[in-house]
Design a protein that fits this description.
The protein is α/β, with parallel strands linked by helices. The chain is 33% helix and 18% strand. It is built from 17 helices and 15 strands. The strands form two sheets. Strands 1-2-4-3-5-6-7-8 form an eight-stranded mixed beta sheet, with helices on both faces. α3 links the parallel β3 and β4. α3 crosses α12. The longest helix has 19 residues. The N terminus is likely disordered.
């Protein structure tokens, strides 16, 4: 009788466990191997079909939507989504680095993989091209800017560091240390990517804010009351204030202009930093570019990129191409980022006329005189050869400013060739001379150019502003961009990866952005 009751109890427990349909986030991603058999219920078999169906493997979801953290700190549920590597359920002994991806103001935990942003597809494409497989985590950030609210009423950052990161590490096969965690985000999420890593450098190895939403002090002081109160005042204090009253101590404790200082240097330098912003941004590039200047001035190592684009999903999706590779490089133990797909410049062979000029194949009197201005540049012929890749009707005219002034060169070359218009390419120290002729030409291309004190663009001229993030004249190039933006002048602004060879950088940048020149 006792044995019969014992067997009955075993049967009851077996039935209960086999019929359970509850699956937690952790159970969705456990180390269980996929079932090799699937029994087809008798009622689902086709009439007259007495042949057992073929075994079907269990299907596991890779994108886990709307999982829930029951936060004690915030006393509420925090939803999040997770994208697992495609081999996660097969390589059950493998652990993975983690990338936290934060959304912008008004979005949610699924916005990175929603109607406009398609991070999963881009990640798949990059993995197919060789990117290391990683786990991607998308938390709900509300409108918190990912900080603890100034009055302690909504301590989001504490929740993130004390509850959320440990939950991810306990629920999935992560490599649970600083070396294998990175963080990125767009707009408000860009600020979150910066501030979480800055305030908790013990948690993250790399931080890559995309179009980080923040302002200069001057911009904050003049922000509309509605904009200030709804986004900034609510989180950093000073709600209802105007002018300097908005620049609270709590704001300064979180603003990157104030945080990147010598007192915090040791901890901040334990994080790798990457910032990017589109040149068509309404306000944010002014703030991001000025942060780049501050970081250069204060000697904080970082990557900085400016490319074509605005505050758009396209810009942020394209930014992942380098950002995720950069994450993987450092989380795998890399020491110095070499850049993505940087190739040696291949300078074409060209012929110069008796005057030392290069004329395009279609050159005639309706073309453009292009004054290529420089100071004592060795290999200037290679620069002209690289510029010859530009399509159009033009003559490239070397102007060594140690021989003649740029005005004298313009007069000289105009006497040799009759053309409808004049452009300038100003390299390095030739920038100020080019600005002196800006009202006489249609376009000036600046590469890492020194401009002097007077940076006042005119609307009759278009400005192509090119540099690397290691360029010598970063302040002047940033100042010209800002002046063009504020005066509504026509411009294009690009900042690319710099290397240890400035001359090759110049050739590479000319080749990369030659379509902008429009000679």
């Amino acid at each position: 009788m006792i044995q019969s009751n014992f067997i009955s109890l075993i049967c009851i427990f077996a039935t209960l466990f086999s019929s359970s349909g509850c699956t937690s986030a952790k159970e969705n991603a456990t180390d269980k191997k996929p079932s090799q058999e699937t029994e087809v219920p008798e009622e689902e078999q086709k009439p007259g079909d007495n042949t057992p169906s073929d075994p079907q493997p269990e299907v596991h979801e890779l994108y886990l939507r709307d999982l829930v953290l029951e936060s004690t700190i915030l006393d509420m549920d925090i939803r999040y989504s997770v994208l697992l590597p495609r081999d996660y359920y097969e390589k059950t002994d493998q652990r993975y680095a983690v990338v936290y991806m934060l959304h912008g103001y008004g979005d949610n935990q699924n916005s990175w993989n929603g109607e406009w942003l398609h991070a999963r597809e881009r990640i798949t494409d990059l993995e197919d091209a060789g990117l290391e497989k990683m786990i991607y985590v998308y938390p709900m950030g509300f409108q918190s800017y990912y900080v603890n609210r100034y009055d302690g009423s909504f301590n989001y950052m504490d929740m993130f560091v004390q509850e959320f990161v440990p939950l991810i590490d306990s629920s999935f096969r992560t490599i649970a240390d600083k070396q294998h965690r990175s963080i990125t985000g767009y707009s408000m999420g860009g600020f979150g990517a910066y501030v979480l890593a800055a305030k908790h450098p013990e948690v993250f190895m790399c931080s890559a804010p995309l179009s980080m939403s923040f302002r200069t002090d001057k911009q904050y002081m003049t922000e509309s009351a509605s904009g200030w109160n709804s986004q900034w005042g609510t989180n950093f204090g000073g709600k209802g204030e105007k002018g300097e009253g908005r620049l609270t101590d709590y704001y300064k404790a979180h603003c990157p202009y104030y945080v990147f200082n010598d007192e915090n240097r040791q901890t901040l330098e334990s994080v790798k930093w990457y910032f990017t912003c589109g040149d068509d941004e309404e306000q944010l590039l002014i703030a991001n570019d000025s942060l780049h200047v501050i970081l250069r001035d204060r000697n904080f190592a970082h990557e900085f990129r400016v490319d074509n684009g605005a505050h758009t999903s396209t810009y942020w999706t394209n930014a992942l191409n380098e950002v995720l590779s950069w994450f993987s490089f450092y989380m795998s133990g890399g020491e110095k980022w070499p850049g993505r797909n940087i190739k040696e410049p291949h300078v074409p062979e060209i012929s110069f006329d008796a005057n030392g000029a290069y004329k395009s194949a279609s050159f005639n009197n309706n073309g453009t005189l292009v004054l290529v201005a420089f100071h004592q540049m060795d290999r200037s012929d290679q620069v002209l050869a690289e510029l010859s890749r530009v399509s159009g009707n033009y003559a490239l005219l070397p102007c060594d400013l140690d021989v003649r002034s740029l005005s004298e060169w313009k007069e000289y070359w105009s006497s040799q060739y009759e053309c409808a218009k004049t452009h300038i390419v100003a390299l390095g120290g030739a920038g100020a001379a080019a600005m002196g002729l800006q009202d006489q030409v249609k376009q000036i291309v600046f590469y890492d150019a020194a401009l002097g004190e007077d940076v006042s663009p005119v609307k009759s001229c278009k400005y192509i502003i090119l540099n690397t993030d290691t360029g010598v004249n970063y302040r002047d190039m940033g100042a010209l961009y800002t002046a063009c933006k504020r005066s509504d002048c026509s411009f294009e602004y690009r900042v690319a990866k710099g290397t240890d060879d400035p001359f090759k950088d110049m050739l590479r940048i000319i080749e990369t952005y030659k379509s902008l020149f429009n000679f």
